[in-house]
Amino acid sequence: xxxGMAGKVEDEGPTGEGRGRVGRVTFVLGVLTTVxxxxxxxxxxxxxxxxxxxxxxxxxLGLLIAFATYQLGRRKGRPFVFPVLHRAGYPTVFLxxxxxxxxxxxxxALLPDQASQVAALAAxxxxxxxxSPVVFVRRGTGTPSGRPPRLFEIVNPYLDDPAAQExxxxxxxxxREHGEQHRYCYLYLPSGAGPDALRELWGSLRPKETVxxxxxxxxLSSLPVERVYDSNDGDGEGGQATLIRHYVGxx
Length: 251
What we know:
Blueprint: E1 2-3, E2 9-10, H1 17-47, H2 49-75, E3 84-85, E4 95-96, E5 99-100, E6 107-110, H3 118-129, E7 134-139, H4 162-177, E8 184-189, H5 197-205, E9 209-213, E10 227-233, E11 242-248
Parallel strand pairs: 3-8, 6-7, 6-9, 7-8
Antiparallel strand pairs: 1-2, 4-5, 9-11, 10-11
Helix pairs in contact: 1-2
């Protein structure tokens, strides 16, 4: 399989030879670049020992701070999630455990605005997926920043959207609880992506089924699906049933 320019996954042959070939090339390139970096660092270690020690020390310090922050978040029960940022015109590629997820989505789940409804949505998505990958999508609610980025600043609207962070974190927490986190992929649609972004994403991923909380499924009603049906899930806040709407794709 290979990822097309619109994020569509295309088959390279029934034998899966393309997958092995790409894997070997990627592995060789990874080893080569690693050797080159180690060679350059070793050369500087003797040619510029003080500069190398300073740069290495700063790198190690940054890694320690990142590790401590990550562990602190895990102890508080709030996992860190870094979703794929949807960019129009760019391929949508998901990774899980360092590998590309193929197919990219069996089920597409549109995360609701209320974090208390995520459990019901995740339960419905898991039931439909039956062990296959699930892509959780969250539309941004923040206002895009119009200011120019600062030097070395990472421009990502997701970092300024706490509601989306909470929704993704809840989905990841539930996935880890049930041992399903390796099947969960996350994608963030910025608020400035436009009204047709969700439809374009659906067209590129072609999921077998799309699920959303009823009443929070704006933009899905125009999808060219085969049928639509509702189900009640009792995993909502306080055990209350949450109405989940299913959009079944055409075979």
